[in-house]
Amino acid sequence: MNANMKMPPKKSSPARKRKPGLAGGLEPLGSSSRETKYVLRLFVSGSTAKSALAIENIKRICEQHLKNLYDLEVIDIYQQPNLARDEQIVAVPTLIKRSPLPLRRLIGDLSNPKKVLIGLDLRMPEE
């Protein structure tokens, strides 16, 4: 490095504070308020056992962690194939978190609550 070149001064940033809320004091990622409404769409294939399990699992998780702060729409791809096509659904069950951003897709029966909470940005991944 040239001895005559000066390095720009380092900018100090204020310490980040954790806000009380979910999962070890963290708020939902990408959210400025605990009052954020979650908009979820679950795509299922008829009344199969896997579809029924996915519906049961996501309802339980939402009631435990998002009480009154979510809208869940269950869509049967056989009844509404246009919606499945528009959302480019290639596997079912598929849960789409439309809001808050970022949009997320979770595929499967949603039987692992930890993975679902991470996918919904309600819990940080453990390192």
Task: Please tag this protein with its features.
Glutaredoxin, alpha+beta, globular
Q: How many helical elements?
A: 3
Radius of gyration of CA atoms, rounded to a whole number: 20 Å
The CATH architecture of the domain at 38-119 can be named as: 3-Layer(aba) Sandwich
Chain-averaged pLDDT: 81
Please state the structural category: alpha+beta
Could you give the order of the helices and strands? EHEHEEH
Strand order of the largest sheet: 2-1-3-4
**Spans where pLDDT lies below 50 across 5 or more residues:** 10-33
Distance between the termini: 37 Å
Task: Indicate the CATH topology of the domain at 38-119.
Answer: Glutaredoxin
- CATH 4th-level superfamily of the domain at 38-119: Glutaredoxin
What is the percentage of strand-forming residues? 15-25%
- Describe the sheet with the most strands: 4 strands, mixed
What percent of residues adopt helix (DSSP H or I)?
Answer: 10-25%
* CATH hierarchy, class of the domain at 38-119: Alpha Beta
**Shape summary:** globular
Could you give the count of β-strands? 4
Question: Overview of this structure, please?
Answer:
- This protein has 127 residues and is of the alpha+beta class.
- It has a domain of 82 residues: Glutaredoxin.
- The protein has three helices and four strands, in the order βαβαββα.
- Strands 2-1-3-4 form a four-stranded mixed β-sheet.
- Strand 3 and strand 4 form a beta hairpin.
- The protein is globular and about 35 Å long.
